[in-house]
Amino acid sequence: MMRVLLGFLLAFMGLLHAGHSEPQTQENFDVNRFMGKWYDIAVASTCPWLKRHKGEAAIGSLELKSSGSSELISMTRTSFRHGTCKSISGEYQMTTTPGKFKYHVSKWNADVDAYVVHTNYDEYALVVMYKQKSGGEKTTSVKLYGRTMELRPTLIEDFKALVAEQGMSEDTIVMKKNKGECVPGEQVMPEPQIQRARRNVVVPPPEEGSGDDTPMFRGPEACKAPVDSGPCFGMLQRYFYNSSIMTCQMFTYGGCMGNQNNFVTEKECLQSCRTEATCRLPIDSGPCKASLDLWAFDSSVGKCVSFKYGGCKGNGNRFYSQKECNEYCGVMMSDEDDEFLKAN
């Protein structure tokens, strides 16, 4: 009897320490056939942020290429964020298990294990991912990828079955929307109309928000705060004002806490934090090719001029109307003043 109890106790202790059992990866996995472009069709996750933003997700892409190293794979991920296509690059580390990859998310100090559990290489791939932060928080995700943006219904059912195997309910599933090809730097979608309507009709400022825990009231000191992703596991693209170079830059926000230097759009960020000092910056179109009609202050002629903005980078000398540029940079609009500027 004592032996039976001892055996049961040892087995029970083993279960307590087992944690996640590794998913079985695709048999005879061929990494070379797995390379190329994939579209993220659907995702299920235990991440609380994803549940709150189920209606916002659009299909993006994941492109895998050889890095020249036998241990690393180059990754480029594109996705729509507030009407603009954004691109993020990184590297996946190969492991001794074919079909298993590892990577580190430095912003959250999190390690991710990714398992390709099923794929036929030319149509679909089912991937299980385990993310763990240094503090101990864990997130499980299941993703369905396709070589095209449309997949047959039976693959959707296979995806749902795998989600259930990972212990997640069907309400954790997000079926992403096909909003067209995502081309970095191009504004190909309008911002969600629901957000605009909410800002227009709600009078009290405390009601305007993005549905997360970002503080809503910002003073001048907020624009000088360092970038802060917060402790959560979301992947929300936001903007912060970099006061040292006087422009707004994109960062990945976890979905909760952080600080007030956190803006939903680049326009909101610039209009909240930009100062007159930006008017002395040179006009910079940036490296992208979106060709957006904006305005900038040309210090050589002392007036605001229109220019083509590429859609990324550049600097803070970038305004969304001539009136806005004139107001920021102190340009007088009367005919008399205009003649004075020309004479000087």
UniProtKB/TrEMBL annotation:
One of its GO terms (cellular component) is plasma membrane. InterPro entries: A1-microglobln, AMBP, Calycin, Kunitz_BPTI, Kunitz_BPTI_sf, Lipocln_cytosolic_FA-bd_dom, Prtase_inh_Kunz-CS. It is found in: Cell membrane; Cytoplasm, Cytosol; Endoplasmic reticulum; Mitochondrion inner membrane. Its main location: membrane. It is a peripheral membrane protein. Residues 223-273, 279-329 form the BPTI/Kunitz inhibitor domain. Residues 1-21 form the signal peptide. Pfam families: Kunitz_BPTI (PF00014), Lipocalin (PF00061). One of its GO terms (molecular function) is serine-type endopeptidase inhibitor activity. Keywords: Cell membrane, Chromophore, Cleavage on pair of basic residues, Cytoplasm, Disulfide bond, Endoplasmic reticulum, Extracellular matrix, Glycoprotein, Membrane, Mitochondrion, Mitochondrion inner membrane, Nucleus, Oxidoreductase, Protease inhibitor, Proteoglycan, Repeat, Secreted, Serine protease inhibitor, Signal. Kunitz-type serine protease inhibitor. Has high catalytic efficiency for F10/blood coagulation factor Xa and may act as an anticoagulant by inhibiting prothrombin activation. Inhibits trypsin and mast cell CMA1/chymase and tryptase proteases. In the N-terminal section; belongs to the calycin superfamily. Lipocalin family. This is Protein AMBP.
